[in-house]
Design a protein that fits this description.
By secondary structure, the protein is an alpha/beta fold. It contains 13 helices and 10 strands. It has a 7-stranded mixed sheet, sandwiched between helices. It has a 3-stranded antiparallel sheet with strand order 6-7-10. The termini are far apart. The mean pLDDT is 86.
Length: 316
């Protein structure tokens, strides 16, 4: 009796898991090097890969804010992809560096605007932190807010980390999420088909006058498109609906790296809501957020990673 051949799909999944494992191993090795080496090593590696393999495996990216604001400095698609993917890979390195024995990653950081969190908690309905996608937001925002004395329940997808496959979620993604969890009260997982359960948990935390954090994104059942840098930005409206239903203020949070390596985590005033409960229209709130984000992205164009996430469609 001959053995059954593995299905092509299974072989493909195995190959992807092997690639993801090798990639994480290389990123771990880079993360343990001096931080000043991160950018040039990853940038040169991506340039070499594109020279040998073309653009396969590298997602397309839109123009970055710097190119919209300064058309004379516009770069080609190849340079734009390398730049965006370099920022994307560097975003993963701090959590891996935290696994380095005896060293870890201990940047200087401060929270600005914590008074907005305190004011929200004084209202008794909790607070929602809406985290913008800047390069170091995933770990730094959690670290800084925890150091400031706030315990946060964070909404997260099971694919957050390094892999989207079932094996990678179990074996690779915890290398990132376990580090982030040190600075959280809890991670509320948005598993497939469990959206209602996750949102109920967040509503419970807000009902306890707790703090919830959600990363700004576009992958959701309900989204809205709003003006952004002359184009359109797609925004998931779940956090806006949660604020309208719970009465908790919705506070945008920006994570910015300064010269010298220190970080600022800026908590902004609450966004205006156009109504409560089911009568809320999320579009004006999303537009107000996008207008605020424009200012931050224009001031720090090399740190915003939305062009890699493809949340923005530039205008013609």
């Amino acid at each position: 009796m001959t053995a059954r051949r593995p299905r092509r799909g299974r072989r493909g999944a195995l190959a992807k898991d092997v690639r993801d494992t090798v990639r994480v191993g290389l990123l771990m090795a880079i993360s343990w090097l001096p931080e000043r080496a991160w950018d040039p090593i990853i940038r040169r590696s991506l340039a070499l890969a594109m020279r040998n393999l073309g653009t396969r495996g590298l997602r397309k990216t839109q123009a970055a804010p710097r190119e919209v604001l300064a058309p004379g400095a516009r770069r080609g698609a190849r340079e734009r992809r390398i730049d965006a993917h370099t920022r994307g890979w560097i975003e993963r390195l701090p959590a891996l560096r935290m696994h380095r024995p005896g060293a870890g990653w201990r940047p200087r950081m401060r929270v600005e605007g914590a008074a907005h969190i305190d004011a929200a908690l004084a209202g008794g309905k909790g607070a929602i932190l809406w985290i913008s996608e800047f390069q170091y937001h995933s770990l730094v925002a959690k670290m800084a807010i925890d150091r400031a004395g706030y315990r946060v329940s964070h909404l997260s997808r099971p694919t957050h980390g390094f892999s989207m496959s079932p094996w990678g979620r179990r074996r690779l993604n915890p290398l990132r999420t376990d580090v982030e969890d040190r600075f959280l009260r809890e991670r509320v997982r948005l598993d497939e088909g469990q959206t209602v359960t996750a949102m109920r948990t967040l509503r419970r935390r807000l009902g306890e006058n707790g703090i919830v954090s959600i990363t700004v994104g576009r992958e959701a059942v309900q989204t809205v498109e709003v003006p952004f840098f002359g184009g359109a930005m797609k925004v998931a409206t779940g956090p806006i609906s949660l604020a309208a239903a719970s009465g908790a203020p919705l506070l945008p949070v920006q994570t910015l790296r300064e010269r010298g390596g220190a970080f600022r985590v800026v908590v902004e005033p609450p966004l205006p809501l156009s109504g409560t409960g089911r009568h809320n229209d999320p579009a004006p709130t999303a537009a107000a957020y996008a207008q605020s984000l424009e200012r931050w992205a224009a001031a720090h164009p090399g740190q915003w990673i939305g062009s890699l996430r493809r949340v923005w469609t530039p205008g013609q």
